[in-house]
Amino acid sequence: MxxxxxxxxxxxxxxxxxxxxxVLEIGGSHVTAARVRQxxxxxxxxxxxxxxPHAPADQLVADLAAAGRAVLxxxxxxxxPGPFDYTAGVAWYQxxxxxxxxxxxxxxxxxxEALDLxxxxxxFVNDAEAFAVGEWTAGTTRGRTSCVGVTLGTGVGSAxxxxxxxxxxxxxxPPNGELFRVTPPIEDHMSHRAIVAAYERATGExxxxxxxxxxxxxxxxxxxxDVLNTAFIALAEALSPWLKSFGAEAVVLGGxxxxxxxxxxxxxxxxxxxxxPITVTANTEHSAIVGAAR
Length: 294
Hints:
The protein is α/β, with parallel strands linked by helices. It is built from nine helices and twelve strands.
């Protein structure tokens, strides 16, 4: 069976033509197993499973292996949150409220053994990069020469793309292409924990998440509007100089907190100070799956 190449079809290198690509999209509390057809980048969700972010390493490996078996073809692509060594396949989670038990674990070796595969059959990719590449492949930034994807949730993920390739080095991007590494720390303002804490300070009321705060903002509550504006203004101020230096043509937002963007768009765009298209993805998970396959 002939093999595709990125140059000939845009499909993943080494994947037989017509064979779906098996993908795991992994978040802080879930794993989604999917198959992607490279001919049209259509996605079939096979299974969604819960992950206990505080489970021991053996349980997490077993849960990921079980999800992987459902979509295994010639190998498996895994979209993982950081901190993670994507080349070596080693997890470095520590103090990030998820997967601490995987700290220092060679996930490539453990999963390869569990799935009876060579380690080279497992490819790991940063989840924010996967999202950005998925949007460039089949989403709102499709075909842009230079674009930026930003995911907003437990933290801030980012990827700076040129011609669909992640740029991680150079003076025109943040260190490793990751906005959360810049100073002052953006996640002190733009993250689930920061927004919830800011709302509690403003009102004395503790709400479970950003969705509930956004609902208060939609109803016109001033404190909720101010809290969200503050978070998105901080994001705009951190992002603006990098968009300028990178020459970005468009930005796409994803992640759970991106759903609140329309409530704060005027404040965000004023702080950004750049006339650049800002869109919100229709489906973060779908885009990350497509990007991991690509």
